[in-house]
Amino acid sequence: MGVVRLSGPDAGRITRALIGDRELTPRTAHFARFRDPAGEVIDEGLVLWFPAPGSFTGEEVVELQGHGGPVILDALVAACVHQGARPARAGEFSQRAFLNDKMDLTQAEAIADLIDAGTRESARAALHSLQGAFSREVNELVEQLIQLRIYVEAAIDFPEEEIDFLSEGGVADDLNRVIDQAGAVLASARQGRLVREGLTLVIAGKPNAGKSSLMNALAGHEAAIVTEVAGTTRDVLREAIQLDGMPLNLIDTAGLRESPDRVEQEGIRRAFEEIRKADRLLVVIDSQEAGVNLNDLTDLLPSSQQELDGLDLPVTRVLNKADLSGLSPGPHPNQPDTFVLSAATGQGLLALRDHLKGAAGYQGTGQSRFSARRRHITALEQALAALAKGRDQLHAHAAGELLAEDLRAAQHALEEITGAFTADDLLGRIFSSFCIGK
Ligand code: GDP
Ligand code: ZN
Q: Is the CB of residue 341 less than 8 Å from the CB of residue 352?
């Protein structure tokens, strides 16, 4: 079957030009013949008419369901275009639904996420978002912020009593409650993004430190080539694995070395582009190497990888080859985010796996309340930062004006999630990533 969907005020007129002038009952299948402008029948099938505003896009919508096949569908689309329609842009149906208030932005995004879902867990999460689970939680936060703002603004209007008003009025308690709640939503959003995109981990370190071996150990099979000759891994190697249901995208950077070769330079440039988008850097160190400064990345990376130091990615360190150095496997006794292990024997690997899941905020399978994207997480983090700043202002100066400003900033950040407040270029970026016809 092939479906052509028309949306807009001319949908009905265009349809009648194809099937002849006849009465259509809303949301009811009608059998019809679809004719080209010369009157020749292209295909026959069903017509469904959804009058505005009770349709997916909120506009008049018609679905023409034919037998499908590229030739027939092309002819059907051409006949519609001849009557004044134009092909939809990527995501345009969803975008119109959003613009006509049929759904908010997280729901529109969830449609794309549902279609693109790679696992049942991510599909389930996307469906929850589509049904409004994420929006509801964000809107609840916004509602509480509005209440707080009303209160604080009122206090500012009565300067003589402002300080009492703010200190006695339970504002601090309310603010703390909102902060806790926003933190919980952020944790769910992190999980929602994780099941969708996974954690992207860049593995770096000196030649022979054991990067490929560690990748293989994490992956549980021979994905990367392990040899004793330094510089074996020529290209950037990607491997997608799962840690107890959490997708983990591994990038091995062994191919990053200084090279006069133009082709190789281009490969290295692309590798850095990908690395910039990663979530975490995993630096592998041979634990037999004595005297390295664990807090100085330039000491731990070969010169060709030292650019990674400037990337501001959170860092996990692995002291590998514990079986040779005699260090006891597990979390490092006094260095945070540092793990002693043996990629060869697997000792200490479990602690690293747990750490990676914890650092990513993974809560386990079946725990996804909605799907989320990086932009949602950024917005929630901004809102939380503004709220924390407001709490400090209140604490330090009982300053209503400053608190009001922070509350306003937090509300704006949250409204960007649902699209109640959006920049136009944001909409363009979101909907252009959809497939055509959605
Ligand atoms: P890379 O260059 O950082 O990717 O290092 P490789 O993974 O290719 O490993 C270099 C060499 O160290 C290989 O001979 C590995 O077998 C060896 N190796 C890696 N990890 C361990 C380990 O934990 N213990 C021991 N004994 N050898 C290891
Ligand atoms: Zn390697």
A: yes
Which of the residue ranges 7-16, 85-94, 225-234, 339-348 would you say has the lowest mean pLDDT?
225-234
Architecture of domain 198-360: 3-Layer(aba) Sandwich (3.40)
315-364 pLDDT, tens per residue? 999 999 999 999 999 999 999 999 999 999 999 999 999 999 999 888 88
Task: Please state the ipTM of this predicted complex.
Answer: 0.98
Fold of 2-87: Gyrase A; domain 2 (3.30.1360)
Pocket of ligand 1 (CB under 6 A): 205, 207-213, 226-228, 233, 254, 320-321, 323-324, 342-344
Q: Ligand 1 atom 6: the closest Cα is on which residue?
A: 210
